[in-house]
Design a protein that fits this description.
With 358 residues, this protein is α/β, with parallel strands linked by helices. The protein is 30% helix and 28% strand. Helix 6 (180-198) runs parallel beside helix 7. The radius of gyration is 22 Å and the shape is globular.
């Protein structure tokens, strides 16, 4: 079980950027910010759901950084317990002292509130256990998605025998499959894979933003010959490995690439090393990422290959369709669930239009 040191700084909302900048200069990364400042309309568009009342701003903010603890007593600033690069490895007490010194320097010219630094040790089990309070078995058509702590019999209850059973624990990576966008992507992915199997070919699938591996694992269950997942988060390694094993999947049929496909040549080349042309690319990501990602996707696709984009608010459909058109995709089908839509498009390098809506 991986353990982490959490460095938490109590400050003010106005000083958050100053704190993050100062700590980044020390090598820390991945700041977690907690405050009660109400979100703007633009910020609300960047998250999947926002249905809570705006909080009362109390003028207090917490900025936290996490560093993975190594067996030799040092911590990895990258947050990856397997980090070996000396540039990212530090003595935890020395790091605390450097942070205190940086905070003292900030106090000389800025109001950073309390500016107090607290240090605690946590582990990824705490994150995993929290999911047990909220994540229970559910159905997507005839697919039963269930966590490891519920037996299949308990999960199925009065339902019919599932066609597919996916055992999934999100762990430290994002994704349970319960969100509308994921369910839309699951249905679209299943339909495209089954269509290709009917033609006698097991497709290669590229899952961008794989998270806990839900779409990749289901792709393999549906009959894909290969699934390649990509993600920015190193914690995806553990989550996908555990979920592949929990579902008895052949690990050789799945490969994970950690990196940004938008602008990282190394990640792009690793994806292409597994398959020069993918039959299906699926991306269940918000438009803020889909927009710069989509022009890059044709590099990985067969001519006539299918690109499934979910994570799109219905009101953003036209905007996203324009992005697809410009990148050479024809949108064949749009499905909706709640306030979300999923676009199924073919890469053909020409002008686009919608031929079917569901």
């Amino acid at each position: 079980m991986s353990k982490f040191i959490r460095y938490n700084i109590r400050t003010t909302p106005a000083a958050e950027d100053l704190i993050v900048s100062a700590m980044t200069d020390l090598g820390l990364c991945g700041a977690q910010i907690e405050d009660n400042v109400p979100l703007t309309a633009a910020e609300k568009e960047q998250i999947y759901t926002y249905d809570a009342d705006d909080p009362v701003d109390d003028g207090i903010a917490h900025v936290s950084f996490y560093a993975a603890m190594k067996a030799d007593g040092r911590v990895a600033l990258s947050g990856d317990p397997e980090e070996t690069d000396e540039a990212f490895l530090r003595d935890p007490e020395a790091l605390r002292e450097e942070m205190e010194e940086a905070l003292s320097e900030l106090r000389a010219f800025a109001d950073i509130g309390d500016g107090t630094l607290s240090v605690s040790i946590t582990d990824d089990a705490e994150w995993k256990d929290k999911w047990k309070q909220f994540f229970h078995s559910f159905w997507v058509d005839d697919i039963l998605i269930t966590p490891s702590w519920e037996t299949t019999a308990e999960a199925a209850s009065a339902k019919e025998t599932p066609r597919h059973t996916l055992r999934i624990d999100p762990g430290t990576a994002f994704g349970t499959g319960a969100h509308e966008t994921t369910q839309l992507a699951i249905r679209a992915l299943r339909g495209e894979i089954e269509a290709r199997l009917a033609e006698g070919a097991a497709p290669a699938v590229l899952d961008i933003g794989t998270g806990s591996g839900i779409l990749s694992i289901l792709a393999l269950m549906f009959g894909a010959g290969l699934a390649v997942g990509t993600d920015l988060d190193a914690f995806t390694k553990e989550a996908t490995a555990e979920n592949l094993a929990a579902n008895g999947m052949d690990a050789s049929r799945f490969h994970l690439v950690i990196g940004n496909l938008i602008d990282e040549e190394k990640a792009q080349e690793e994806v292409l090393s597994r398959s020069e042309e993918y039959d299906i690319v699926v991306a269940n990501i918000l438009p803020v990422v889909l927009t710069p990602l989509t022009p890059v996707v044709p590099r990985f696709m067969k001519q006539g290959g299918v690109y499934i984009t979910s994570g799109i608010l219905c009101e953003k459909e036209e905007e996203m369709r324009g992005v697809l058109t410009k990148a050479g995709f024809v949108t064949d089908r749009v499905t909706t669930q709640g306030e979300w839509c999923c676009l199924v498009s073919r890469f053909c390098g020409g002008a686009a239009g919608v031929t079917e809506r569901m």
